Fold each of these.
Amino acid sequence: MMTVSADPIDAGAALSAFETDIGGAGGIVSFTGRVRPDSKHGSVATLHLQAYSPMTERGIEQAIAQTEKRWPLSGLKVIHRIGDMAPGDTVVFVAAAAMHRRDAFEAADFLMDYLKTNAIFWKKEVTDQGVVWIEPRPQDYEENARWALTEDA
Amino acid sequence: MMTVSADPIDAGAALSAFETDIGGAGGIVSFTGRVRPDSKHGSVATLHLQAYSPMTERGIEQAIAQTEKRWPLSGLKVIHRIGDMAPGDTVVFVAAAAMHRRDAFEAADFLMDYLKTNAIFWKKEVTDQGVVWIEPRPQDYEENARWALTEDA
Amino acid sequence: MVQLLYFGRLSDVAGKSEEALTLPETVTTTTELRSWLDLRFEAEGALLEPTVRLAVNNEIVFDPHPVRGGDEIAFMPPVGGG
Amino acid sequence: MVQLLYFGRLSDVAGKSEEALTLPETVTTTTELRSWLDLRFEAEGALLEPTVRLAVNNEIVFDPHPVRGGDEIAFMPPVGGG
C-alpha cells in the first residue's frame, strides 16, 4: 500500500499492478509526479530527496488512513522515491480506486496535497546555478488548506 | 490523442505510452473506468457500447479542444472502447499532463464528466435480470453542471 | 434511397440497427419521417419523443429538417455516456 | 552516547548528516542541545530557529524535552514535500 525507496518508479507497471490487486472496482485515478527539467533555481541536473525512516513512512500511513476514512475507496497506493533523481524521473506515484469516480479523484488529489506539503522529505536541487535545499512554497500550503476548510469534525 | 475502438484497453501500457510521448512534464493524472460487476439492474454479464462514427469521435475531439483551451496542458489522451465488454474490462482511459498537478487533475476530471454525460455512446447491459439500455442518470448531469457554473463566457 | 440508422433502444423498436429504403413522396422532412416510421414499426410514439434527436448526414438537426435521397438519417435516443 | 541526525540544509551546517557523541553533563534538554551544537558548529542560530523541529527517538518533541544517553535526536528543518 505504501513504499518509500530509492528504486526507480515505473508508473505504467505500478498502475497495472494496482488494477490487478484491487479487482473489478469501477474507477481508478492515478497521479505521476516527475522531476521537472527546470526550476526557479536553474536548469536541474539532480534532485535529491531525503526521508527520515520510519517517521516518513508513518506520516504517509496516517495520511492514507485519513484518506480512507474520508472517502469510500476500494484501494489506495503510494510509491515515493528517495535519493538522487534526474529530470523526467518519477518521484511519486499515487493511485486511488473507488466505485464512484468523484471519490477516486478527490482521494488522489487530497493525498497528493499531503505528500507535497506535510510529508517528511527534504529536497535538494542541483542546478546549473548551484545547489539549493527546497523549503515549502506558499502555494502548497494554500492547496492543502482547500481541504482543511471542508474537514469533518 | 483520441481512439474509439473495440480493442481491449491496457491502462498500464496506455499510461506508459502517454508518459513517453509527452516527455518530461511535471504531473500526469490518469483515469481508468471499468465495467462494474453489478448494476442496479442485476449482475452484469455483458456491457455493450455503441458509437456513431464519425459523430462520436468529433464530439470527443471537441471536448479535448475545449479542455486544452481551459487548462495549460502538455498532453491529453482519450481511449474509449466500444462493442461487448465483460465486468472488469476497461471501458475508458483518460490521461492529462501539466506542469502543475491541479491543472492535470481538473482537466482529467472535466473530460471524464463530458465522456460520462455528453459523449455519443449508447449502452446496453445484459444482466441476470435481462437486457436494458442505459440512459442518463441525474447525478451525471449534476456532475457536468459543476463545470458549467464556472464556465468562461 | 436513404440510409436509416437506429441507435440504442431504437434498434430494438425497429428490429434492426440500419436499413436502406426509398421514402414515399409524402415524406420530405424529419417530422414526416418520424411519423411515417413510427406507424410502420408500430412504435407507439417511440420515434416521436423530443428526446430522440435526428442526425442527417452526421449533423444533429432540428425538426422539421428536409430529407432527400442519398441522406444518412440517424435516430438517436438520449446518450448513455461512456 | 547519543545519535544525532541533521536533515536538509542542516546537514550542510553540520558538515555531516549524522554523528554519535557523548553529550556534556550540562546538556540535559533539547533546548540546551540546540545551543551547545549551534555554538559548536558556529551555525549562527540555524539550529535555534523555531521552524527547526527536533525529534527524539522518532517522535517530534517540544522544547525543552529531556535528552539522555541512547537517544536518537533528529534536527528537522521545514519539510520540502515530495
Amino acid sequence: MKRQFTITSQPIDEAALLRGRKMSDAMGAVIYFLGVVRGTEALDKKISAIEYEAFQKMVEHQFNLLFDEMEKRWPIESVRLVHRIGLVLVNEPSLWVEVIAPHRGEAFASCQWLIDEMKRVVPIWKKPIPG
Amino acid sequence: MKRQFTITSQPIDEAALLRGRKMSDAMGAVIYFLGVVRGTEALDKKISAIEYEAFQKMVEHQFNLLFDEMEKRWPIESVRLVHRIGLVLVNEPSLWVEVIAPHRGEAFASCQWLIDEMKRVVPIWKKPIPG
Amino acid sequence: MRVQIQFYSYFKDFTGCAQMAETIAEGNTLAELLKKLFQRFPRLAAMEKSMLVAVGVDYRPRDYVLKDGDEVSLFPPVQGG
Amino acid sequence: MRVQIQFYSYFKDFTGCAQMAETIAEGNTLAELLKKLFQRFPRLAAMEKSMLVAVGVDYRPRDYVLKDGDEVSLFPPVQGG
C-alpha cells in the first residue's frame, strides 16, 4: 500500500493533490474526504478560525500505525493524507484524505475507519478562535 | 439542498468541478466518490473500456427521486453528481459524486446510500469492451 | 389502444429491436403485455424474474393498467457507477 | 534518573509550562510520576481520567516503568480533523 502523509501550515492545494493521483487498472474506487472548519463550534458561539496544534513526531508515528492496520484489514492500493496545523480559517479544509481501493465498500469503510481512529489516537488539538 | 446532475459523454473534469464547489460556513464535511473503470471485470477477462448506456430521461427522474429522499434523511447542503455515458476507458472515472454536509457521519452515510440506491434503480447499463 | 415499447441494454439483442409499437385492449395490464412479448421473444421470457419495467420514467408493478400512448421500457438490472 | 515532560494543548495553560525535566527514582512508573505532578499542578489532577500519556511516540499504560532520558508527553483527548 502506497502511503503519503503530510502535515503543513500551508493551505491544502487540492488541485495539485488531484494531479498527483496514481492508481493501477485494478482499482475501481477513489474517495476523498475533506474536514472543513465550521463557523459554529457550538450553536451559541461564532468562530473565525481554529488553531491546530500537533505533537508532530508522534502524529507521524501514530498515522503509520493506523496505515499498517488499514493495510492488514483492506486491500487498499494507496492512502494519502494531509493535515493542517496552525491557523485554519472557517470554510477552509484542515484535513484531506484520499483512499484508492478495488471496490467502493472497502474505500468507504477504510476511509471512515481511518478518520475515526485518527480522532481517537493522533495527537492533534484544536483551539477555536472567536469571530 | 442544492442538487446538480450531469450526464455526459465527455471525460469528467474534476479540477473544474472542484473549482465550482460552494459551501456555507456551517458545513464541516465534504466527500468525493469516484467510480473508476477497472481493467478486470472478472479475474479471467481483460477489458479496455466499458460502454455505458443510459435511459436518460428516466435517469434524471430517478436521481431526482433519490435526491428528494436524501434531503429528507440527512441535513445535506449540496449534492453534485456526474455520470459518463458512451465509452469510458479503463482507469478513467465513470462516476463523480460530491456530498457536502455539516458532519462526516452524514456525509459518508448519505453518499454511500446514494450510490447503493443508484445501482438499484437508475437505468444505466455497462457493456465491457474486450482488451 | 397503442403503447410504445423500448428495450435497453442486452434486451435489444434478445429482441433484435430497440423500440416498437403494440396494439393492446382497453384495460390491459403490464402483465398481459409482457405475456404477449414473451411469446414473441422467448429469450426475454427467460429474464422475467429480474426484468425491470417502467412506464414513462417511473417503475410500475405488473398489475399497472396501461393507457393509450404509454411508453413502456423493459430492461435488465441496472449497473450504473 | 531524569525524564523530560511535555504538555500539550490546554495542559500547558494548566501547568504554565510546555516542557520540564523531573528527577525520579529507579523503577518509578508513570503512575508514580503522575502522582508527583498532580500534587504540583492541581488542575492537571482534575483531568486524570481523560488524560492521555505517551512515552516517546507511543501511548503507554500507567504501570510503564520509566527509563532514564524518557520523554513523557501528557495531553487531553485528541481532536484532529
Amino acid sequence: MSYGSTTSACRALLQRDLSLVWRQRGDALNPVLFAVMVVALFPFALGPEPTMLARIAAGTVLVALLLAGLLSLDALFRSDLEDGSLEQLVLSPHPLALLLACKIAVHWLTTALPLLLVAPLLGELLYLPQPVLPVLMVALVLSTPLLSLIGAVCVALTVGMRRSGMLLALLVLPLYVPVLIFAAGACNAAQQGLPVLAPLLWLGAGLALALVLAPLACAAALRISLS
Amino acid sequence: MSYGSTTSACRALLQRDLSLVWRQRGDALNPVLFAVMVVALFPFALGPEPTMLARIAAGTVLVALLLAGLLSLDALFRSDLEDGSLEQLVLSPHPLALLLACKIAVHWLTTALPLLLVAPLLGELLYLPQPVLPVLMVALVLSTPLLSLIGAVCVALTVGMRRSGMLLALLVLPLYVPVLIFAAGACNAAQQGLPVLAPLLWLGAGLALALVLAPLACAAALRISLS
Amino acid sequence: MNPLVLWFHKLGSPPYFYRFAGRLLPWFWGAALAGLAIGLYGGLVLAPADYQQSDAFRIIYVHVPSAWMSLFIYAFMAVNGFIALVWRIKLSETLAMAAAPIGAAFTFICLATGSIWGKPMWGTWWTWDARLTSELVLLFLYLGVLGLHQAIEDRRQAARAAAFLALIGIVNLPIVHFSVNWWNTLHQGDTVKLFGPSLIDSRMLWPLLVMAVATKFLFAASLLSRARVDLLELESGKDWARQIALAEERA
Amino acid sequence: MNSPIPLEAPPLLEARGLAYLRNDEPIFGPLSFRLGAGEVVLMEGDNGSGKTTLLKVLSGLLQASTGTVLLNGEPLTLARLSHQVALLGHLLGIKGELSPLQNLRFAIGLGGLRSGITPHQALKSVGLEGYEDVALRQLSAGQKKRVALARLLLVPAALWLLDEPYANLDREGITLVNRLLELHAMRGGAALITSHGAYAYTSGTPRRLQLRGQEAAA
Amino acid sequence: MNSPIPLEAPPLLEARGLAYLRNDEPIFGPLSFRLGAGEVVLMEGDNGSGKTTLLKVLSGLLQASTGTVLLNGEPLTLARLSHQVALLGHLLGIKGELSPLQNLRFAIGLGGLRSGITPHQALKSVGLEGYEDVALRQLSAGQKKRVALARLLLVPAALWLLDEPYANLDREGITLVNRLLELHAMRGGAALITSHGAYAYTSGTPRRLQLRGQEAAA
Amino acid sequence: MSEFVSMGGYGGYVWSAIAIFLVTLALEAAAPLLKRRRVLRELRGRLRRARKSNEENT
Ligand code: HEM
Ligand SMILES: Nc1ncnc2c1ncn2[C@@H]1O[C@H](COP(=O)(O)OP(=O)(O)OP(=O)(O)O)[C@@H](O)[C@H]1O
Ligand SMILES: Nc1ncnc2c1ncn2[C@@H]1O[C@H](COP(=O)(O)OP(=O)(O)OP(=O)(O)O)[C@@H](O)[C@H]1O
Ligand SMILES: [Mg+2]
Ligand SMILES: [Mg+2]
C-alpha cells in the first residue's frame, strides 16, 4: 500500500498533459497562426514602408504574442473541468499549488514556446532591426512565463463560468500592462542603443516573484471558484 | 387562426434579441473594453511619442476594432444554439436568410455601434490627426457591417463545434484582410492629403454586395452545420 | 467579552446592521451635501485665482478629492475583501462589493476631470505618463471586479472571487501614488502634505480639505445605502427581510 | 391501421421509406407510416435507437437520406417548411433571461397565433399563473418545460412532434401533458411523441411505433 | 446504529450537524451520521435534494456552511485532504483522448497504489481486458464507467463516495458494482453511494440515509 | 457674474469638470435607490407567492 509521493504525482501530471498535447498537436499550432495573422494585418493597416514598420516591429510582436497567449489561456483548465479531472486534482492530498504549477509549465511549453520560436520570423515580417532581436528574445523568454503565471490566476477565477472569454481579457490585461511596459522598454532601449539591463532585471525579479506566488494564488482562486 | 407575417416574425426576433442584450447590458460593454485595452497596449509597447503614435493611429484602431469584433462573433449564435432557439428559427417557415439578417443587424447594433462610438476616443488616445478622423469614421461605418456580415457566415459554418474560437479566427481573418486594406487605404490617403473616395467606394460596393449575399450564405451554412 | 468586540459582533449581523445603517444614513447624506456645498463655494468663489493657471486651477476641487477617493476606496475594498476571504464575514463581502461601483465612479471622475484639466494646461487630453496610465489601469481593475462579481451566480461565491481579484490588483495602488516620484512626468508631484508645510496658499487649501472630507461622507452614505440593499437581496429568504418588505408595503 | 379519416384524403403526415444514415451507418431503417388527424402515436426504442433523429427528420431539421416526408400529401423540404409542424425537443428553445410572457410573445411572432387563446390564458392552463414576469432562469426545470408546453397551445400547428415530453415533469405535469394531447387530438390535431416508457400517454390505447435497430414497423 | 466496530474507536467517517447553504438557501439540512469500517450506506433522495452536494462536502470539495466532517476522528479541511477518500462523481475524471491504461497510470500517480494489484489486473477485473490501449472516446458510456471503477480498485482509499455508480451500466455492470462494494466492505473499507433507487446495492441490507428537505436522519 | 461664469476664459473646462463630478455622483447615489425598489418588489412578489401556496395547501 503506497500513497505515492508528491514528486510522482507531479511527474504523472506532466506526463499526462504532455501526451494530451501530443495527441492534439494540431490545436497547439493555433496560437502561432493567430499571432502570425495579427502581425500580418499591420502591414496592410499601416502601409508597407519598411522604416516605419521597423520602428514598431518589436512592440507589435510583443502585443501579438500577448494577445495570442491571452486567447489560449481559456483552454488551461477547461477540458479538465469538463471531464471532472479538475475535481480529482483538487481532491488530491498533494499540494494543489505544486500540481497547478506543473499544469502552467505544460501550458507555457506548448503555447508560449512555439510562439517564442516564431518570434524571429514575426520580427522579420516587420523588418525588425537585427540588433534588437536578441533583446526582444530575452524579453520574451522572461515575460512569457510571467504572462502564463499571471493569466493562470485569472483563469482560475473565471473557471466554470459561461461566456468567460471577454471577462477573462478584462481581468488579465490590466495585470499584463506592467510586464508589457518593461519588455517594450528593453526593446526600445535596444533600438536607441541605450542600456537594456535594468528593465530585463525588473522582468526577472517579477518572474521570480510570480513563480513563487502565482501557483499559490492560483490554487486559492481555483478553490473559490469550484465551490 | 393567424400564421403571422414575415414582418411580424422579424419584428419579434428583433425585439427579443434587443431585450436580451438589454438584460445583459454589462456584457455588451466587453468588446469596447477589449478594444480600448488593445489600443492602450500600443503606447506601452511602442513608447509614448505622439508623432509616432499619430502615424500608426488609424491602422491600430482599425486592427483593434477588427479583433474586438472577431472575438464577439462567437456569441452570435451560441446562446441560441445552446437553448434550442436556433432550431426553432430554422424550423420557422419564414425565410431564414431574412431572420438571420435581423440577428446580424442586432449583433452589429450592439457590438459594432458601441465600438464606432468609442473610435474617436481611441483615436484620441493615439493622437490621431484631426483631419483623418472623419475618413476613419466613414471607413468604419462602411466596414464594420461588412465584417459582421462576413463573420456571420463563418460563425454559421463553425456553429456547434467545440473549441471553435481559434478555428473561427483562422477562417475569418483571411476574409477580413481585403476589407482592412481598403479601410486602411482610405485612412492613409487622408493622412497624406490624397483623395480618399476610391477605397471608400470599393468598401461601399462590397457592403452592398454582402448585404444581399451574406444572409443567404449564412442561412445555407447554418443548415449545413445543424445537420 | 470586551463590549467593543461584542458590538462589532452584533454589527456583523445583517438585520442589526440594516437598522443601524438606516439610522446613520440621513446624517451622512446631510454632512456630505453640506460639505460639498461649502467646499465648492469656497473653491469656486472664495479662493483666489492661481498666479500660473488663473481660474483653471479650480478643477483641483473636484479632481484631487476624486483621485484620493479612488485610491482610498480601493484600499477599503481590498481590506474588506481580505476579511471576507479569511474570516468569511458576510458583512465584509457586502461592503467590499458595495464599495466597488462607488470607487469606479470616483476613478472615472478623476480621469475625466484630469483630462479636462490637461487640455488647457498640457495642451492635450491624454498622455501616456505613469500616473495617468496607472489610474486608467485602476479603472479597469474596478471594472474587472464588478464584472467578475456579476458573472457568478452564487452571490457569496461571487463576492469572494471578486474580493480575491481586488486583492491581487492592490499592487497597483502604490504605483498610482508614487509614480510621480519614481518617473519624472508631466503630472503634478505631491503638493498637499499631511506632515510638514503644504505647498499651496491656505485660502486655496481649506476648500480642498473640506471637499476631501465631504467626499468621504458621500462615500460612507452611498456605501451604507448600497450595503443595505445588497443585504436585503442576499437575505431575501430570511424573516427580517420579509418583515421590512411588509412594512414598506404598508407605508 | 385504424385511422379515422377517409382513405382518399391525404393523411396529415406520411413517411415513405424513410431512412437516415450518419457516416453511412443507418441510424434508423427504412420506415413507412401514416398519421391521421386525431391520432396520437407513441414512439418507443432504446437509448440511441434514433428516436430524436426521426423527429428531426420529420420536422425538416434533418434531410432524410432516403425516402420522403409528406405533409397533407405534399413533400416537406428544407426550402418548404410548414406552419403545420411544431417540434418540442430535448432543448426547449426558450431564453432563461426573459420572462415566460416574453418567450411566448416571441414564439407567436415566429409561428403565428391560434385563434381564441392568449399567452396569459396559455400560461394559466399549464399552471403558471403568477409567473408571467419572472425571469425563466429562476424557474425549476419542470416549470420551464411547462412554458414550452404553453407555446404548443399558442401556435397554430396541427402536428406536434414531442421528444420526451414527460421528462422533468412531476405526476401533475404528466397528467397535464396527457390532457393537452387529448385536447389536441379532439380538435383534429395529431401528435408523435417519444418516451422511455415510464409515463406514456394512456388515454385510449395510443398507437405505438417501435424503433429498434433495422426492423422497425408502424 | 449497528456499527460493527467498538464504540471507543473513532468511526471512519463522521458528520456532525452538517449543512450546506447556497445563496443562503439550505441545500441539505443539518445532518449527523457515522460510517464505520465495513459499512455500505445507500443515500436516497429526490432530484435536487442535495445528494451530490453532500458527497462533495464529505470529500472536501465544498466547505460545509455549518458542522464538521471527521475522518478517523480528525476534521477534514480544504488544507488537509486525505488519501483515505475516493470520489466518483457524475463526471468520471478520465480523459477521452488517452487509453484506459494511461488514465489509470495518472490516477495512481496522483492517488497512490494499493498493494497487490496492477492496472492490468484492475482492468481485467472490471471486464475490460483487451481494451488497455484503445482511446477512451471510442468506448461506450458503460465501458468508460468501468474504467472509473478500475481506478477505485487501484487507489488505496478506505472510504468510497460514489455518486450514482449504477448509471449507464447494464445488468452485468450493476452486479459488478455490487461485487466491488462487497469486496471493499469485507476488506474493512466503507462506502457511501447514491442512487435513484432502481438498482441499489442488495447484498445484506445496506443502511439507508434519507435526504429529503430538512428532516434527514441516519 | 459673467466673469464668474467665464472663469477667466477657462469656464468651459471648469464647469464641465464640475458637472461631470456632480452628475456622476448623483447617478451613483441614485443607483441603490432604484435597486432598492426592485429588491422590495421582488420580495413582495415572493411573499405573495408564498401566501398563495399556503392558501392552496390549507
Ligand atoms: C487624465 C489626467 C489625470 C489623471 C488620471 C490624474 C490622476 C491623479 C491622481 C491619481 C492623483 C492622486 C495621487 C495621489 O494622491 O497619490 C492626482 C493628484 C493631483 N493631480 Fe492629477 N491627474 C490628471 C491630470 C491632472 C492635471 C492636468 C493636473 C494639473 C495641471 C493635475 C493636478 C493634480 C494635483 C495638483 C494633484 C494633487 C497632488 C497631491 O497633492 O498629491 N492632474 N491626479
Ligand atoms: N450529432 C450527432 N453526431 C453523431 N452521432 C450522433 C449525433 N446525434 C446522434 N448520434 C447518434 O445517432 C444515434 C441515434 O441518436 P438519437 O439521439 O436519435 O437516439 P434516441 O433514440 O433519441 O436516444 P435517447 O433515448 O437517448 O434520446 C445514436 O447512436 C447517437 O450516438
Ligand atoms: N453549482 C450550482 N449552483 C447553484 N445551484 C446548484 C448548483 N449545484 C446544485 N445546485 C442546486 O442544489 C440543489 C441540490 O443539487 P444536487 O446536485 O446536490 O442534487 P442531487 O440530489 O444530486 O440531484 P440528482 O438526483 O438530480 O443528482 C438543487 O436544487 C440544485 O439546483
Ligand atoms: Mg432522444
Ligand atoms: Mg446528483
Amino acid sequence: MKKILNAPSDVVEEMMNGMAEAHKDLVHRVGNTRVIARNYAGKGKVGIISGGGSGHEPTHAGYVGKGMLSAAIFGDVFTSPTPDQVYEAIKAADQGAGVFMVVKNYTGDVLNFEMAKDLAEADGIDVAYTVTSDDVSGGESTYSDGRRGVAGTLFMHKILGYHAEHGATLKDLKEIAEAINPNLATIGLALSPATVPEQGTPGFTLKDDEIELGIGIHGEPGFEKASMMTSKKIAAVFYDKLNAHLKLTGEEELVVMVNGMGATPLMEQYVFVKDVFDLLKDKGITVAKSYVGDYMTSIEMAGLSLTFFKLDDARWLDALNAPVETIAW
Amino acid sequence: MKKILNAPSDVVEEMMNGMAEAHKDLVHRVGNTRVIARNYAGKGKVGIISGGGSGHEPTHAGYVGKGMLSAAIFGDVFTSPTPDQVYEAIKAADQGAGVFMVVKNYTGDVLNFEMAKDLAEADGIDVAYTVTSDDVSGGESTYSDGRRGVAGTLFMHKILGYHAEHGATLKDLKEIAEAINPNLATIGLALSPATVPEQGTPGFTLKDDEIELGIGIHGEPGFEKASMMTSKKIAAVFYDKLNAHLKLTGEEELVVMVNGMGATPLMEQYVFVKDVFDLLKDKGITVAKSYVGDYMTSIEMAGLSLTFFKLDDARWLDALNAPVETIAW
Amino acid sequence: MDLTLARQWMDAFFEDLKAHKDYLSELDNPIGDGDHGINMARGATAAQEALTQSPPETLNGLFKTIAMSLLSKVGGASGPLYGSVFLAFAKASLDQDTLDDKTLSQLFIDGKDALMNRGKATKGEKTMVDVWIPFSERFNQDPLTKEDVDAMVLATKPLKATKGRAAYLGDRSIGHIDPGSMSSGYLFKTFLNVRDHS
Amino acid sequence: MDLTLARQWMDAFFEDLKAHKDYLSELDNPIGDGDHGINMARGATAAQEALTQSPPETLNGLFKTIAMSLLSKVGGASGPLYGSVFLAFAKASLDQDTLDDKTLSQLFIDGKDALMNRGKATKGEKTMVDVWIPFSERFNQDPLTKEDVDAMVLATKPLKATKGRAAYLGDRSIGHIDPGSMSSGYLFKTFLNVRDHS
Ligand SMILES: Nc1ncnc2c1ncn2[C@@H]1O[C@H](COP(=O)(O)OP(=O)(O)O)[C@@H](O)[C@H]1O
Ligand SMILES: Nc1ncnc2c1ncn2[C@@H]1O[C@H](COP(=O)(O)OP(=O)(O)O)[C@@H](O)[C@H]1O
Ligand SMILES: [Mg+2]
Ligand SMILES: [Mg+2]
Ligand SMILES: [Mg+2]
Ligand SMILES: [Mg+2]
C-alpha cells in the first residue's frame, strides 16, 4: 500500500481536520465529533444531513453548505457511522424545524441512522428520513437489501437541500424524496480496486484485461466480470441496465451523471459521456443537464458509474440548477 | 493498459466532444479545431487563452468561462498544441482588444505559442503572453528551461481572467502576470505513473515503496527517488523546497493549493494539507485561502503537488475570490 | 453464572475477536467489504477500555457498558446489531446477581429477538440470525458443544444472502461462511468454554 | 539533387521516422516525455498525405508543404523546430530546379540557423542543434558518411541538457542519447543514402 498518510488509523481524523481548515469559510468540524457542519445556520429551516463510511470524498462533506446539506457524518473508511455520531449531526443540523436524513441503502447505514433517529426523538427532535437505492446492478431484486444507494443520492441531497432552504417541512421533504427515488438509476464498473488504509491490501483483484460490471462503491462485487471493452460497448451495456429499470420510452428528459470512482481520469469520463450522449440521441431522449467528475468515489478505485435521473417533475431541474455554497458541488 | 476508451488515437477528439456537449451551457467547441471557447463573448475585452498537451484535465478547458479563460487549446496527450490551433484560439478569443496567452514553461509550448503569435500578428490581432515557471524542483536553475509551469499557473488564469473581465489592457495584464510569477512556487511528487493512451505503457516505473520527488506533470523525472515517507515528512521536504524559492519570513500571507495528480484520493490530499497547515502555523505564516483537489492532473498518475502563492499584492486575493462561470474552478 | 464469570466470558469473547480480526475481515472480503474483523476488534478494544475504566458492579451494568461501547465504536451493520443484542442481555439480567440456565436461555432468546427486530432478517438469509436461531432454540434441549456451534456457523456457507451487504452478490454469495455468524460463534463458544470450565 | 531525388529523400526520412517511432519515443522516455517518436511519426504521415494529395512541382513547394504539415501536426518542441528548418529549406531552394553541393551546404546552414533562432539553444545543450552544427559545418569539408552521422548523434549522450524537457533532469540527463538528434540523424543519413545511390 502506497498512500500519503501518517498513521492509517488516524486517516479519518486527519482528513476531517484538513477539510475543515481548508474550507473554514464554508464549514467547521463540530467539536471532536465525526461531524462537519456548515457555517450557515438556516434558522427555522429543516436541516438535511447525510453520511456514511469515509472514502467516498468529496461525498458527503463536500456537499455541506447553504442550499444543500446542513451536516455530514464521517464513518470509518467504508464503515457506517455510529448512532452517537449521527445524533451529533442531527443536533448540529436542527434549527427548530427538525432534521431530514438521507441514508444510502446499506444495512449498516440504515441501522445506525435509525438508531440515531431513536436517540434524537427521545430528546424531542423531529427526524424523518429517506433511503436511496439507485444502484440497479442487482437487477429487479425483490429483497430490499439488493439495491445500494450510490451516486444518484447526490441529486437527492441537492433537491432536498434546495427545498429545505425554501422552507419545506419534514413531511414535504419525505414526499419529494419518495417521488425522486424511483426515478434514479445508477450502474458502475471497476477497472482496479481500492485499498482501505487500515487493511493495507486491495479489497478485490482484477486481471490485466478484466473489469467488474455492477460494482458497488465499497468494492462489493458486481453482477459480472468481463473482458475489457470499449467505451461505446460499456455505454450500451449500461444503457440496457438503466433502461430495464427506468423503462424509457424516448419521450423523457434525463439528467445524466458520469461519476469517476477515484483513479479514472476525466479524459476517460468525457470519452464515455460522449458515447452515452450519442446513444441517448439515437433513442430520441433529451439530456436536460449533465454532470461529469469525481462526485462519489471509492478511494482510489479506477472505474466510473453512470446515473440517469428521469425528470418526472420539471421543478426538479430548477432545484438542481439553483446555486449552492459548498466545497465540491 | 486498462482504460475506458474507443481508439486511443481518437481520445482527444472524443474527450473534447464529450466535454463540449456535457457543458454546452458554458462552452462550445470551435468548429473542428482543437479549441474549446466560452459561450460568453466578453465584447471589447481582452481574451485570455491557455492550453498545452491534453491529459491534465480539468486543465485547461475546465477553466474556460466568464471571469477566467476565453478559450483553451488541446494538444495531443502530453504534447504541445500546434501553432495553427493556438491561432484558432486567438481568433476565437479576440473581441477587439487583443489576446493574452498564458503559456507554461515547456520548450514545446513556448515555441508553438510564439509561432501562433507571429501568425496572429500577421493578421492584425494584438497578442501578448506570459510564461509561468512555478515548479521549483530543479532548484534555482540558471537556465530558463529548468523551471516548468505547473499548477500555480491556475492562479495566473484566475487573476488575469478577473482583470480582463474588468477591462485590463494587454499591457496591464503583462504587468500583472510578471508581478505574479515570482510569487508562485510549486513542487510535486508521484507514487505511480501515468500511461499515455497512444503509448500504452507507463511513462516511468516506481518500486512498491518508492516515490519520485519533484516530478513534472508529464512524468518527467524529479530531483530524487525516495522511499515512501509519511505525509508529515513530505510536507516538511516540500516546505523547504518552496521556502528556498520564496524565502518566507513568517510575515506573509499565502494562498495554498494541494493539487491531486489524478489517482490520489481527496482523503490523502486532505491529510496532507492538514500537515502543511500545521507547519505554516509553526512558522507564523497566515493562510489566506486554500484549494484542495484535482486541478491540474497527469492522467492517472498518483501523487500531488503543493503550491504556495505569496500574496505580495492584496488585490490578488480579491481577484481569486471573485466568482467565475466555468466547468471546474 | 455470576458477574465474575460473565466478565471472563466477555473478556474471552473480546480476545477472540481481536485474535481473529484478520480472519473475520477475510471472510467479509468475498461477500462484503472486508471490514468485519476491523469493526469487531475496534468494538472489543473500546468495550475492554470502558470496562477497565469503570468496572461494572452488576450483570446489567456489564452488558450495558458493552452495548454502548459497541454501538458507538463498531459502526457498520454489526454495530447496532450487536449493540441491540447486548442491550437485550442487559435487560434480561436486570436485578439478577447470577444467571441460571433458565435465565441464560431467555437471555439468548431475547438477544436473538432484538437482533431480528433491529435487522429485520429472518431465518435463511445468511446473516448471524442463522446461528442465533439454532443456538437459542437448542440451548435448553441438547448439551451444546463447541462442535455444534462450529456446525451452525458452517451451515451458513451454502446459503444465498438476501440481507446485508452480501445480498448484492445474489448467487455469488453461496459457498462462503457469513462473517457475522463466525463472530457470533465466538460469543457462543467462549460462553460454553467459560461455563464448562468453572 | 532534383525534385524527384529530394522527394525520395523526404520519403525515406518519413519512412524512417515511422519505422523508428517506438525507438524514438523510448529515447525520449528517460529524459523527456516519451513522445518524440509519436510526434514525428504523426508529422511524417501528415506530410506524406499532403504530398500525395497535391504533389509539389518545385523544390520550394516540396519543403513548404512539409514545413506546414509538421507545424500543424507534430506539436511538442520538435514541431515548430522542424517546421522552421523546412521553412528555411524552402527559402533556400526558392527558384531552384536542382540543388548543387553549394546550395545544399547553404540549405543545411540555413536550417541550422532557423533551428537555433526558433529554439534559442546553443552548442552543447543536448538538443538537435548538437548534430545540426557539426553536420552543416563539416558538410563542405569531408565526404561525410553515415558512420559520421551516427557518431554525431552518439556524441549527445554524455552531454548535460540545459534546453528542452531534458533540462529538468539536470545531471540525470547525462548518459542518454538526445531523441531529437536521433531523428535529425535520420534526416542526414537518408540524405547521404539518396545522394550516394543516385
Ligand atoms: N439485517 C441483518 N440482520 C442480522 N445480521 C445482519 C444483517 N445484515 C448484516 N448482518 C450481519 O452483519 C455482518 C457484517 O457486519 P460488518 O461487516 O461489520 O458490517 P458491514 O456489512 O456494514 O460492513 C454480516 O456477516 C451479517 O452476519
Ligand atoms: N530549444 C531547443 N532547441 C533545439 N532543439 C530542441 C530544443 N528543445 C528541445 N529540442 C529538441 O526536441 C526534442 C524533443 O522533441 P519532442 O519530444 O517531440 O517534444 P517535447 O519535448 O515537447 O515532447 C529534443 O530531443 C531536442 O532534440
Ligand atoms: Mg463495512
Ligand atoms: Mg511532448
Ligand atoms: Mg463488512
Ligand atoms: Mg517529448
